[in-house]
Amino acid sequence: MPVGQVAGLGNYGLCGTRHSVGMVVLDRLARQLAVADGWRVDRRCCADVALATAHGLELVLLKPRRFMNLNGLSVASAAEIYNLGPEDIYLVHDDLDKALGKVAIKLGGSARGHNGVQSCISALHSSEMTRLRIGIGRPEGAVTVSSYVLAPFSTGEQEKLEQVLAQAVTCLLEHIQSRAPVGDRG
Predict the structure, then answer these.
(1) Given 19, 114, 125, 175, which residue is catalytic?
(2) R_g of the chain, CA atoms, integer Å
């Protein structure tokens, strides 16, 4: 039975946009954990799901098949199916307040204006989930936040993105390893 869930937040079908970078990280994580071919549609939680093992811990990798502001419904349904609590869940999402290239783990707390995170907090009735925040920076000039997050990464950003994805997966796996029982840290 899985002991953790890693959810890549985003707008399903809008891959490649800044707002869906969490799903891109999940794809990269699945490749690194050799389960990239293991994604399957789980209608019970309206998500793409893959089961993986990292540092001896079985994980549910999840990409909701919903819009960002409803991602929490998929995350909460999967948590119920796999008998996981909010403390067992990682949310991987974009962060306007961090520059592109910055990645950080945050333990619980408010949504800070992120609709996907707020959806998860509402659906799980908790803010205890661990967050992996992927910096996307803020829009410049007259560009609105919604236009910015729903746009694809620029060519210059794409060049940085590969390094950001690798850094994000490493950060996530190191944090998961730190939570593994001592005998399972391989």
Answers:
(1) 19
(2) 15
CA gap 165, 168 in Å, rounded: 5
pTM of the model: 0.95
In this predicted model, what pLDDT tens digit does every residue of 32-87 receive, in sequence order?
999 999 999 999 999 999 999 998 899 999 999 999 999 999 999 999 999 999 99
Distances (CA, A) of 130 to 4, 59, 88, 142, 157: 11, 14, 8, 33, 26
Tokens of 38: 């293991």
19 is annotated as an active-site residue: yes
**DSSP assignment, residue 109?**
-
Digit-coded pLDDT (tens) for 72-99: 999 999 999 999 999 999 999 999 999 9
Task: Give me the amino acid identity at 167.
Answer: Q
How far is it, in rounded angstroms, from Cα 67 to Cα 144?
19
Residues ≥6 apart with Cβ < 8 Å to 49:
39, 40, 41, 42, 60, 61, 62, 63, 78
